[in-house]
Amino acid sequence: MKGEKAGAFKNITELFDRYMGVFFLVPGIIIMGLIIVYPIVTNILLSFTDAHLIRGISKNVGFDNYLRIIKDPFFMNSLYTTLLWTVGSLILQFSFGLITALLLNNPNIKAKGIFRTLIFVPYTLPIIVVTILWRWILNRFYGIINYLLVAVGVINNNVSWFSSSVTVMPSLVVMNTWFGYPLIALSIFAGLQTIPKEFYEVAEIEGASYWQTFIYVILPSIKRILIMLLILRTIWIFNAFDMIYLVTGGGPNRMTEILTIYGYNLGWKEYWIGRAAALSVILFVILFFLIIFYMKGLKLEEE
């Protein structure tokens, strides 16, 4: 009897030793499931109901929420505005980020550590500080931008940058560029530091110009970094909410109502939680296909 108990205990001990890693992972898996999986599943289920913040849930409506959103002209306006906001921010952030990284990588520039620190300062500021700062800079009555432009004769009268339908989105894109480009600049600069000096020496021996060196040496070497930055920044900018909401609230006349603000209005101002949940699923699908598109491009480049 004792031998059988000892054998059973030995088997249990061996089993535990063999799958000890799994046992230690179980608590983490459960916590991640509660934090990530449960909200996602609940959100998808809510998107098929008429969930209302005050009236609650009375019935399942199938794809009615999705059809209502797609047919809503404000949704199409928000989608167009979101694409303008995202594409404009990406183009400017990557342009300024790449130029800044190339300048920092220039061996003739001294005190690079100081410049790197100063460049990264905007990205370290809280969004609320960034919005207050830029609302002051672009203020119609006492903003420094209006003062300088009037002083040099570019404009005759002060411009209300965040109230005009012509200037509000470009102003927000410039503001977002100032905030986001330092991360891109320093990430690309880190990638430039990994390029072997021999590559530049070979290009110089072959008589390549700086532009040819950039196209055939630098870009291929930092391609992966650029793709990953493009994916991350697309997700972050596309899902942005706080910056635009704090500055314009989606106005004027819904000119800056991107999809996240549109969803906020659906869920917390009109109380249609089910429709807001459906919109979040639509946002996920759009971003999913964008990421697939980026990854396909990276795969084709590798082939």
Helix coverage percent: over 70%
Report the CATH superfamily of the largest domain. Answer: MetI-like
The domain tally reads 2
What's the CATH architecture name of the largest domain? Orthogonal Bundle
Largest sheet, described in full? none
Descriptive report:
The protein has 303 residues and is an all-alpha fold. The chain folds into 2 domains: 45 residues; 237 residues, MetI-like (MetI-like fold), CATH 1.10.3720. It is 74% helix and 0% strand. The longest helix is centred in the first third of the chain and has 32 residues. The radius of gyration is 26 Å and the shape is flat. The model has no long low-confidence stretch (mean pLDDT 87).
List keywords for this structure.
303 residues; mainly alpha; MetI-like fold; 2 domains; 14 helices; 74% helix; 0% strand
SSE diagram, text form:
Blueprint: H1 2-18, H2 20-46, H3 64-71, H4 73-104, H5 112-124, H6 127-137, H7 144-151, H8 168-192, H9 197-205, H10 210-221, H11 223-238, H12 242-247, H13 259-269, H14 273-302
Helix pairs in contact: 3-14, 4-8, 4-11, 5-8, 11-14, 13-14
